[in-house]
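Ticket 4471: requesting a sanity check on a complex prediction with 6R9. Repro inputs:
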Amino acid sequence: MSVSWSLPFEEKISPHGIQKLVSEDAYKEFHNKTVNSYRNFWANVALELEWFKPWEKVLDETNPPFYRWFVGGELNASYLCLDRHVKTWRKNKIALIWEGEPMKDGKPVEVKRLTYYDLYREVNRVAYLFKKRYNLKRGDTVGIYLPMIPELPIVMLAAARLGVVFSVVFSGFSADALAERMNDADAKLLITADGVWRRGKILDLKSIADEALKKTNKISKVLVIRRAGNQVNLQQGRDELFDDVINEIPYNATVEPESVRSEDPLYILYTSGTTGKPKGQVHDVGGYMTLLHATMKWIFDIRDTDVYWCTADIGWVTGHSYVVFGPLMEGATGIMYEGALDFPQPDRWSSIIERYGVNIFYTSPTAIRGWMKNGEEWVKKHDTSTVRLMHSVGEPINPEAWRWLFRLVGRESVPFGSTWWMTETGGILISHTPGLLMVPMKPGTNGFPIPGVKAEVVDENGNAQKEGQRGYLIIRNPWPGMPLTIHKDPQKFVQVYFSKFSGAFYTGDYAVRDKDGYFWVLGRADEVIKVAGHRLGTYELESALIQHRAVAEAAVVGVPDEVKGEVPVAFVILRQGFKPGEELRKELREWVRGKVGPVASLKDVLFVSKLPKTRSAKIMRRVVQAVAVGKPVGDVTTLEDEASVEEVKRAYSQLQEELKG
Ligand code: 6R9
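Returned structure tokens:
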């Protein structure tokens, strides 16, 4: 990804209301202590959870990098999110506020408020259904292809209650993408919906699921949740309507939460990597929940009086950790919404803040840039002064976007950070920590590694990179929340994450540590792009393209976009007999959307006759990318592996010439 990484902010902001403001040095001293005794440190955090059985060993390090946290300990994620609160005054506290997309007179037609007790009841009924009707047992896997409706967290928690592993596929993925993930995960049951409202239209999820089901082999049952009321085909013996089967379950049915092992899998979430098919990141229960508990407190400073809103879709990791498990474990009141943040009007998001009095707001740079474009009048229409803390996630935040939200919603006074983490890390690892020890904020940075986590910026040889110089971001020590493995591919787990810098976890990101020790994550160092904060592998788009009969070869690269941060552009070599043209360009864009899903919209398709390659026939991606964005060749000559400066220069000008012509 091409990010210009000048450090744009030098002013430091000390937000009001934070009592524990400490100097950078004081934080570093404290941080060092936690890192030096990280096993003990994390054990003390984990003690704040409720365990059915205490662990025997904090960290099993006998088979690195397959670390196991809190071995011998037993617990249950659904218990932590529900039962624990139901036993206290939080029983009748609102756990989730949900609003649907359709609006009337500027108000949502449907709003649901579920208390912890409501959620507890619903989750128990669904767990009962899973157990009795579908015979699901600990260790089985269910697939979930659902939009942002309350049933989504409910089925996730119901699975967790039984020790059933779940795998959620984002509803913006296609049938092929869904089928591929379901087959890899060995899902037995698929839970989907008839449709979902998005920007005034109904997206028919069931038809997409039907397509996918033609290509899956293990799914024998499909549970369809009614949302949009559209016509769906139910296949006899396979498909059942959720309403029909759940109505048979008594309202007070309960299922004891399974006492699962700390190191048992909670879920599998697929994510794009450098090469090959999406990788199933397997997350554990004990370590994962411990990290979420810590970060909800340290980073979001979550309190019982707060209304908390994370705008992410549950289909991505941010939603798993910070819409579902994190806030519910803390007994918070969270918000979920269907549809888009700027539909039917650009102020959907600010009206949600006002409607529910949001105090803690977690969103993405892409969303902010979109709102900026619509103009600040839309924000000013609403009272957003309840917001007391904000964070962003998903991609580096640009100074303009940061300043804009800080001024308009943050009133130039609330803490506003950029939390760095990834699907693999399970939760946030680098961030300002307003709920703990707050160092002076430096806008746009990610802040410092959280306590217990040793992150570093290193050069190609794994040595600490100089201050202010770009290097690779790595994590030196194991942390709770790290993946157990890549599903069905432990070798890949070792190779992708733990071989580049022996023993350390390689994130795939470029970063800079500045003179004060703040981290600035700049973007991916590999073939992954973040389109509107959504993580895509260029490889997936390329393999979709070459499945088209007209395409012989393809290279996809990310180019900067004003709102989405990055968008994919394809360079395509056609097969004999096919002519470049507008028609084909359109067809190929549609084709990729169909193959991967609406998340994968190619901005452009450029037809070329040759792609620059190294001697070992690898596409010189950085050359292609530099040409696509009009970057000078000098910037890439030393970056392209396996090719001499001369070769790179030649390849660059050839490709450039061809595009001009
Ligand atoms: C949580 C999530 C991970 C990649 C990661 C990095 C980028 C995420 C960031 C950020 C700069 C931040 N990223 N947060 N870059 N500043 N605050 O997004 O997970 O979808 O797996 O993506 O996102 O490049 O490597 P995931």
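Notes from triage: The CA atoms of residues 15 and 414 lie 5 Å apart. Leaving this open until the requester confirms.
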